[in-house]
Design a protein that fits this description.
The structure is a homodimer. By secondary structure, chain A is α/β, with parallel strands linked by helices. Chain A folds into four domains: 2-37 and 203-346, MoaB/Mog-like domain (Molybdenum Cofactor Biosythetic Enzyme, Chain A), CATH 3.40.980; 40-62 and 168-202, Molybdopterin biosynthesis moea protein, domain 2 (Alpha-Beta Complex), CATH 3.90.105; 66-164, Molybdopterin biosynthesis moea protein, domain 3 (Molybdopterin biosynthesis moeA protein, domain 3, Beta Complex), CATH 2.170.190; 356-436, Beta-clip (Beta Barrel), CATH 2.40.340. Chain A is 19% helix and 29% strand. Chain A has eight helices and 29 strands. Chain A has helices at 2-10, 17-30, 76-79, 185-193, 232-242, 257-266, 286-294, 328-346; strands at residues 14-15, 38-42, 55-56, 66-67, 71-74, 88-97, 100-101, 113-117, 129-132, 150-153, 163-164, 175-177, 198-202, 206-212, 216-217, 228-229, 246-253, 272-276, 297-302, 304-305, 309-314, 320-324, 356-361, 365-366, 372-380, 393-396, 415-419, 425-426, 431-436. In chain A, the strands form eight sheets. Chain A has a seven-stranded mixed beta sheet, sandwiched between helices. In chain A, strands 5, 6, 7, 8, 9 and 10 form a six-stranded mixed beta sheet that branches. In chain A, helix 5 packs parallel to helix 8. The longest helix of chain A has 19 residues, at 328-346. Chain A is elongated. The relative contact order of chain A is 0.13. At the A-B interface, strand 7, helix 4, strand 16, helix 5 and strand 23 of A face strand 7, helix 4, strand 16, helix 5 and strand 23 of B. Chains A, B: Residues 208-345 form the MoaB/Mog domain. Chains A, B: Belongs to the MoeA family. Chains A, B: GO terms for molecular function: metal ion binding; molybdopterin molybdotransferase activity.
C-alpha cells in the first residue's frame, strides 16, 4: 500500500492545534449549510436552537406604567405632607388589579382621589406615585359619608416612586438578542416579553456517527475473542446532541472498506459525519483508506495528546467529515477541540468554545513537549481559607491520565486541563486552565 | 380578609436563604418520591437521567492485553540487542487486527517469532512487547525461503512496552459511577466500556407549571389594556426541563380563586407544581389565598433580593408546591436558589447546586442590607495581562440590575452574582461569586 505510506510520511509533521482548528472553522463557515437555512419556530420550541438573526423588541417592556407594589395610586401633591399624626385622607375612586380595571375608574384621578392598585396593574392617568399599602390604613375601614371609601395615608414616598415606567426595561426597537445566541429559557422568556411569538433559528445540523472497528460489540452482548464494547457510538452521539445537532444515523461497522463504501453511497443525507476509529496508519484503518481515495478529506497529525491523528474534509455532496481516533479519551478530547466548535460554527453560534476556568492542581503530571495536552480532570472539594468563595482545584480523572485509552475513567471527568505545548510537567500547587464540561 | 393579613404579619420576619433552602431540601428528601422509584433504561436512553444506585464494572477494561500501537508483537528477549546495523530478524507467524485474529496464529508465539499486530488487537500468548512499526522494515518486503514472511527489527522498546494490560483502566468490581450522578455522554460511554447495557435511573419528576395573573396574555397576541405577554410559563417550563424533569402541564390562569381550586382538583397527577404570581400580599393574590386555605403550604419572606415572597409545601396527594413571585427576574432567581436544588434533590442528585466561579467586577452597585442579593450578570471579554488564561469579569446584565422586574434583560444573563447579606455595596475591581448559568 504505497499510497497509505506516502500519506503517512507527508503528514508526519505535527500541525499546531490552533492552526488546525482555524482551518476547520474556516472551511465549515465557508460552507453555507446549515447556518444559511433559517426556520421560524414557536417560542415553546425554541430552546436549544441557535438564533439566526438579530432580534429587537417589538413591544415595550413594561408596555405601560404599572405599580411596583400593592398600595394606592395617588397624586403626590395630595400626600406630600402626610404624617402619622396628620394623615392625608383621599377618596378611593377605583380598584386596579393586574390585567383588569374597574370600568368606573377609567377616568383620570382628580385632586384628593386615590385608586387602590395591585402590583403589575396599570397606573391610572393623573396618578404619579404609588403609596405602598404599609404606609396607609389599607382603606378598608374608612367608609366616608354616603358609602364612599376613603384611605388614610400616613407618609409619602418620594414623588414618582413605586411605578415601573413603560419601556423602562425595553423600548420598541431596543436590541434584544444577537444572531448566533443559543436560546434557553431566559432568552425565550425575554423574547416573549419583547412581543415575539416565534423566533428565527438556524436549521439543526444533521449529523451521522460512524464507529468503525471489527472489535466493536453492542454494549452488554457477549464478547467474541478480541471484542470490546462499543462505547464511542454512545459517546459521540451524545456529544453531537449536546452540541445542538440532530443525530441522523448511528452506525457501527467492521474494518471493511466495501462496507464503508456502501454506507457512504447509501447513507441518509446529512450535514456532517463523525467517524471514530480507522484514521491512523494501520493496514486495517479503512476510514483512512476509503476517504483518502476521495481526495477531499485530509488526514493529519495534530500537536495534541491524546487525539493526534485527525481527519477533516468534505464528501462530494458537501457533508463535512470528521475522523477521530478510536481511543475513547482521544475521541472525546478531539471532539471538544475540533468537532464541537465546528458543529457550533455550522449553526452560526457566536461562542464556539466551552467556558474555561483556571484551577489549582492537587497533583502534578508529565506532558509531552511540543504537544498541547488535554488531561481529563475532576474538580475536588473546594478549599476556601477565607470563606469568601470557591477556589477550584482539580486532579486527573482517569487512572491512566491522558495516556488512558478507555472510557471508564472519562465517566468521572468534569473537564479537560489544557497544558500548553511548551510545558513538560505541571506541579502540585500550580495553576492550569480547565475546559469545563457540563 | 383577616386571615390573609394575619398570615402576612406572621411571616414579616425575613428568613435567611440558607435556612429556607435547608427546610425545602429536608422536606423534599423526606418525601420518597420520585427518588425512590427506579427504572432500568438502555444506555442510549440514559443521558440526562440521574443514576439511582452505585454502579461497578462488570467487565474489565481493556478486557484483554492489547496493542497500544501498530507494529509487531514479539518476545522481548529476541529483539533486546537489535540495532540498525544488526537488526533482529523474526519469522512473522500471524496477523492480528482488532476484533479478529488469524486462526492459524492462535498458538503462542515461539522463540524467533513475531506477529503483525494493529492497535487494539489482542496480544498473542507468548509475546511480552510490541515493537512499533516505525522501528521495523514493516515486514512487507522480506519474504524468506519458502514464502515465509520475515520482519527486521532495528531497535527494541523497553520490555513490556506498547501493551495495554487487561484491567489497566478498570477491573471487574471497580467502582464506576456513584448514585446521584447526572448521566451524560461520557458516563454512558463509561458504562458501556464497563460491561453494562442499561443503567438504573430515578424516575423523572413530573412537574406542572402554573402562571397566575389576569394580565397574562399568550405571547404575540394583541394585548388588552393592562395586559402583558406571559413569559414566565416559558421561563419556568424551560428551567424545569433543564433540571431533568418532565413537564406535565403548563397552565395560565386569571387571578380567580375558583379557577385555581378547580385546577387543583382536576389536574394531572404530578410530583411538583411550580406556581408563579399570586404569592405576595395583594388582595388578588389567589395562589396565596387558595393554597393558604389548605394549611399545608407556607408563605414566607426570605432575606433575598429579588424573590423575597416564597411559598413552599405539599398538597394532600404529596405533590410538592413551590410558589414564586410573578416578577420574571425574581422568579428566575428564586428558581435557581430553591426550586432547582429541590428538583435535583427529588432525583437523588449528589450535587444540587450550580457551579460557582469568582469573578471580577467591572462596575459597582448597591445591595440591600440584610438580604442576599442575586444580580443577573454577564461575563465580559476576559482580560488577561499575562496571557496565561481567562480571568472572568462580570457586569450587570439588565438595565435595571437586580431591581429590574422584566425578563427582557434576563436574556443576556450568564449568571447571578451573589452578594452576601452584610454587603451594602460592591465596587468596581472587587470580587464576587457568580452562580454560572448554562
Amino acid at each position: 500500500m504505497p499510497t497509505t505510506r506516502a500519506r503517512f510520511h507527508e503528514s508526519a509533521t505535527l500541525i499546531p492545534v490552533a492552526q488546525h482548528l482555524e482551518a476547520v472553522l474556516a472551511a465549515v463557515r465557508g460552507s453555507a449549510r446549515p447556518a444559511g437555512v433559517v426556520e421560524q419556530v414557536r417560542l415553546a420550541d425554541a430552546a436549544g436552537r441557535t438564533l439566526a438573526t438579530d432580534v429587537d423588541a417589538v413591544l415595550a417592556s413594561p408596555p405601560f406604567d404599572n405599580a411596583a407594589m400593592d398600595g394606592f395610586a395617588v397624586r403626590w401633591a395630595d400626600v406630600a405632607s402626610a404624617s402619622p399624626a396628620e394623615p392625608a385622607t383621599l377618596t378611593v375612586v377605583g380598584d386596579h388589579a393586574a390585567g383588569s380595571a374597574d370600568p368606573a375608574s377609567a377616568r383620570p384621578l382628580g385632586a384628593g382621589e386615590a385608586a387602590r392598585i395591585m402590583t403589575g396593574a396599570q397606573v391610572p392617568a393623573g396618578a404619579d406615585t404609588v403609596v405602598p399599602v404599609e404606609r396607609t390604613d389599607r382603606g378598608e375601614d374608612a367608609d366616608g359619608p354616603g358609602g364612599v371609601h376613603r384611605v388614610r395615608v400616613f407618609s409619602a414616598p418620594d414623588r414618582g416612586r413605586h411605578i415601573r415606567r413603560a419601556g423602562e426595561d425595553l423600548r420598541v426597537g431596543d436590541p434584544l438578542l444577537e444572531a448566533g445566541t443559543l436560546l434557553g429559557p431566559r432568552q425565550v422568556a425575554g423574547a416573549a416579553t419583547a412581543g415575539h411569538a416565534s423566533l428565527p433559528v438556524v436549521r439543526m445540523p444533521r449529523v451521522s456517527v460512524v464507529a468503525t472497528g471489527s472489535e466493536l460489540t453492542e454494549p452488554g452482548e457477549t464478547l467474541a475473542p478480541g471484542g470490546i464494547p462499543d462505547s464511542n457510538s454512545l459517546l459521540l452521539a451524545g456529544l453531537v446532541r449536546e452540541a445542538g445537532c440532530a443525530v441522523v444515523e448511528i452506525v457501527r461497522m467492521p474494518d471493511d472498506a466495501d462496507v464503508l463504501r456502501a454506507w457512504i453511497s447509501e447513507r441518509e443525507p446529512c450535514d456532517a459525519i463523525v467517524f471514530t476509529g480507522g484514521v491512523s496508519i494501520g493496514a486495517y484503518d479503512v476510514v483512512r483508506r476509503v476517504l483518502g481515495e476521495l481526495g477531499t478529506v485530509d488526514f493529519v497529525r495534530v500537536a495534541m495528546q491524546p487525539g493526534s491523528p485527525q481527519a477533516f474534509g468534505f464528501l462530494a455532496d458537501g457533508s463535512a467529515v470528521f475522523g477521530l481516533p478510536g481511543n475513547p479519551v482521544a475521541a472525546a478530547a478531539a471532539f471538544e477541540v475540533f468537532v464541537r466548535p465546528a458543529l457550533l460554527a455550522m449553526q452560526g453560534r457566536r461562542e464556539v468554545q466551552r467556558r474555561r476556568v483556571r484551577a489549582g492542581l492537587v497533583t502534578g503530571w508529565d506532558s509531552p513537549r511540543g504537544r498541547l495536552q488535554l488531561m481529563p480532570v475532576s474538580f475536588v472539594a473546594a478549599q476556601d481559607a477565607d470563606g469568601a468563595g470557591p477556589e477550584p482545584l482539580v486532579r486527573p480523572a482517569t487512572r491512566g491520565g491522558a495516556a488512558s485509552h478507555l472510557s471508564g475513567g472519562l465517566a468521572g471527568a468534569d473537564g479537560f486541563a489544557i497544558v500548553p505545548e511548551a510545558v513538560e510537567r505541571v506541579e502540585p500547587g500550580g495553576l492550569v486552565d480547565v475546559l469545563v464540561l457540563p
